[in-house]
Amino acid sequence: MAKHFQKELEKLKKRVLGLGAQVEDRLVLMGKAIENRELFDAERIIKSDYLIDDEEVEIEEECLKILALYQPVAVDLRFLVATIKINSELERIADEATNIAHRLKRITQCHNNCRIYYDYGELVTRVQDMLNKGLDAMINLDVDLAFKVLLLDDEVDERHHEMYRKVKNDMLADPANVEYLMNKFLISRHLERIGDHATNIAEEVIYLVEGEIVRHKDY
Description:
Layout: H1 2-36, H2 39-47, H3 49-70, H4 74-109, H5 121-140, H6 143-173, H7 178-210
Helix pairs in contact: 1-2, 1-3, 1-4, 1-5, 2-4, 3-4, 4-7, 5-6, 5-7, 6-7
């Protein structure tokens, strides 16, 4: 029974990491869509979102089945609790990428002459790095790497606040293009939320390894 249980846990871990890889690919595609203003990539993100949703539901059902069948304790119970939460955070990251794709479509539909440019490159790179580090921390049970993700979130927040200040000033200077500028700002907001979800993944890794809940704490 114990051997079969461990095989089930290992299979579940591989499945969650597979979902993580899909979400990482989604963020790469999202970055290309933002940089190149490519609606084809945006449409691909939107139309394939259901794949992530379906996988997230199936993984959660698998976790609940294992909990019911084996009634695990200690570190195995923490693994399943953390997996359920990480699984949910991955789906939410994919949702934020989809939200960005919708924003890009809306910006194109505005049909205005606004030529204000915003560089999201650093924000995109940082949130991609946060997710990558969070998943690596899960694979290797690396608490130090998980804490690095938490520190990176402060940098993402600061970049987002800088974007807010810039867009606010541009709205005051060019009120005729408020809708266009608001959608530009919301891209930054969705990127900041991706960073938050990656942070939540890192926090769950810390809980998994150390049994400590670090949410709402100063790092």
